[in-house]
């Protein structure tokens, strides 16, 4: 399978705090990669580099053949192909669920409103929120809001989906419904990069797990190997705390 | 007495009309200028940000009366050197209103936009929206709700501030009131300060009170929306 995202020696610091100190990894098409690691290890930053919500200092990221650092690259083109789901949902509170979903397809993809609405209907039905389509985000539960946020990203028909701790802000009883949507997406062969603390999800769904600490990838491998036989001392320590 | 008031009321209302027109026109133009200036104030580009800051600080820092006197008396002298142009009372008054109000409106815009969570901007960026799409579709529609009460407050300040126009003989409410009093003294040997100034106070109150209520209404609505 071809490479979808290629991190090449990615460095990033905020002020004098080094957050990423040389990330090298290839994410293949249709692969589900789960990134785990202690807080502050650079997981979210790594994800945010992909669609340039964070600008990298050194190195490069190639997304579907487009280089982040190439001045000729139009960042909008990359963002069209990369969907992102946030911890805090970040739905647009002044727009209904339906409008949240169809806004970017209409204004960015230049889709016809009727076409976008049809697509939104299909997507919202799939995640079980079509009956809430005319409500505002504040009228929905956290789990429902996050499912809308996933739908909003999917409506752009992205090639890659990034999940930045998508379940961390949810009440425990709502985590399952969001993880189910993500699992379904993985089954449909979406290329996914997932930052999460849900080790169960990583074990079950990931094709590959990356363990990040101190701004570098300390260890990577199949979930079975990482969780049962971690090679590195730091991985073992981290897993003993979270499992 | 009553007859005197009835006779002079249309004249006083004319002054109120001038006060109102210059305020409304000034506010509208100030909003058109204030939104981009407020957004420039938040720009990542240093020279854009600092030129907006300069504009805001200058016109907020200078007393209303000084800019009015300058625009009416000094500016024509300067312009005269280059081409023939006249700045009448209305124009000077309007310009002063626009400069002061746009600077203050820009600050309100800046504060309201900053009050919107950065997550909204990030969500828009992640969806591939340009700066202008994000502003138009996501940020400003939310910021407007926050802006409304302070903008209405600014408008009432402006409305009352135009009273200073009497100093350049702009025929707003106060100046018209003074003229009325003087005329009554000369023509009918009557002193009507109490009556006329009372009417002026009532007229100002009638213009400002609905606005204050409107502002309170939006503020209540905003507080409700938060929960």
Overview of the structural elements:
The complex is a heterodimer of chains A (243) and B (227). With 243 residues, chain A is an alpha/beta fold. Chain A is 38% helix and 26% strand. Chain A has helices spanning 43-50, 75-81, 97-107, 113-126, 142-154, 172-187, 199-205, 223-228, 233-242; strands at residues 3-14, 17-28, 32-36, 58-63, 66-67, 82-85, 160-164, 191-195, 208-213, 216-221. In chain A, the strands form 2 sheets. Chain A has a 6-stranded mixed beta sheet, with helices on both faces. The longest helix of chain A has 16 residues, at 172-187. The radius of gyration of chain A is 18 Å and the shape is globular. Chain B has 227 residues and is mainly α. Chain B has a single domain (2-226), classed as MetI-like (MetI-like fold). Helix content of chain B is 83%, strand content 0%. Chain B is built from 8 helices and no strands. The mean pLDDT of chain B is 91. Chains A and B meet through helix 2, strand 6 and helix 3 of A and helix 5 and helix 6 of B.
Radius of gyration of chain A: 18 Å
Helix/sheet category of chain A: alpha/beta
Rounded to an integer, what's the Rg of chain B over CA atoms? 22 Å
Report the end-to-end length of chain A measured between terminal Cα atoms: 32 Å
Please identify, by name, the CATH architecture of chain B: Orthogonal Bundle
Provide the low-confidence segments of chain A as ranges: none
Number of helices of chain B: 8
Strand content of chain A: 25-35%
Question: Overall pLDDT of chain A, averaged?
Answer: 95
The stretches of 5 or more residues of chain B where confidence is low (pLDDT under 50) are: none
User: At the third CATH level, what is the topology name of chain B?
Assistant: MetI-like fold
């Amino acid at each position: 399978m071809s490479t979808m995202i290629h991190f090449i020696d990615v460095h990033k610091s905020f002020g004098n705090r080094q957050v990423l100190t040389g990330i090298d990894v290839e994410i293949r098409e249709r692969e589900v990669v789960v990134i785990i690691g202690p807080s502050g290890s650079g997981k979210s930053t790594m994800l945010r580099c992909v669609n340039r919500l964070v600008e990298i200092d050194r190195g490069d990221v190639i997304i579907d053949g487009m280089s982040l650092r190439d001045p000729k690259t139009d960042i909008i083109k990359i963002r069209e192909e990369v969907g992102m789901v946030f911890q805090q949902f970040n739905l647009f509170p002044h727009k209904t669920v339906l409008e949240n979903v169809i806004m970017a397809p209409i204004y960015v993809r230049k889709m016809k409103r009727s076409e976008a609405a049809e697509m939104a209907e299909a997507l919202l039905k799939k995640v079980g929120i079509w009956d809430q389509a005319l409500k505002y985000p504040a009228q929905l539960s956290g789990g429902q809001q996050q499912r809308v946020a996933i739908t909003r990203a999917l409506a752009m028909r992205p090639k890659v989906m990034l999940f930045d701790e998508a379940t961390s802000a949810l009440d425990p009883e709502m985590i399952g419904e969001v993880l189910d949507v993500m699992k379904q997406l993985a089954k449909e062969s979406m290329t996914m990069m997932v930052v999460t603390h849900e080790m169960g999800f990583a074990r079950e769904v990931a094709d590959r797990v990356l363990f990040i600490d101190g701004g570098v990838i300390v260890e990577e491998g199949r979930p079975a190997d990482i969780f049962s036989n971690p090679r590195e001392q730091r991985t073992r320590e981290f897993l003993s705390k979270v499992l | 007495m009553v007859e005197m008031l009835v006779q002079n009321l249309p004249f006083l209302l004319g002054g109120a009309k001038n006060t109102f027109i210059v305020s409304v026109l000034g506010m509208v133009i100030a909003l058109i200028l204030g939104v981009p200036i407020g957004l420039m104030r938040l720009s990542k580009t240093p020279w854009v940000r600092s030129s907006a800051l300069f504009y805001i600080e200058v016109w907020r820092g200078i007393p209303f009366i000084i800019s009015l006197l300058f625009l009416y008396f000094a500016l024509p002298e300067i312009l005269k050197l280059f081409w023939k142009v006249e700045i009448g009372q209305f124009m000077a008054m309007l310009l002063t209103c626009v400069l002061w109000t746009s600077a203050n409106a820009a600050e309100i815009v800046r504060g309201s936009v900053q009050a919107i969570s950065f997550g909204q901007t990030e969500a828009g960026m992640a969806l591939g929206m340009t700066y202008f799409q994000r502003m138009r579709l996501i940020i400003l529609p939310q910021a407007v709700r926050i802006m409304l009460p302070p903008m209405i407050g600014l408008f009432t300040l402006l409305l009352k501030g135009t009273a200073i126009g009497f100093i350049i003989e702009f025929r707003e409410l106060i100046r018209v009131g003074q003229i009325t009093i003087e005329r009554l003294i000369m023509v009918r040997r009557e002193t009507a300060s109490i009556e006329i100034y009372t009417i002026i106070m009532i007229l100002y109150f009638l213009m400002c009170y609905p606005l204050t209520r409107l502002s309170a209404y939006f503020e209540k609505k905003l507080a409700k929306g938060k929960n």
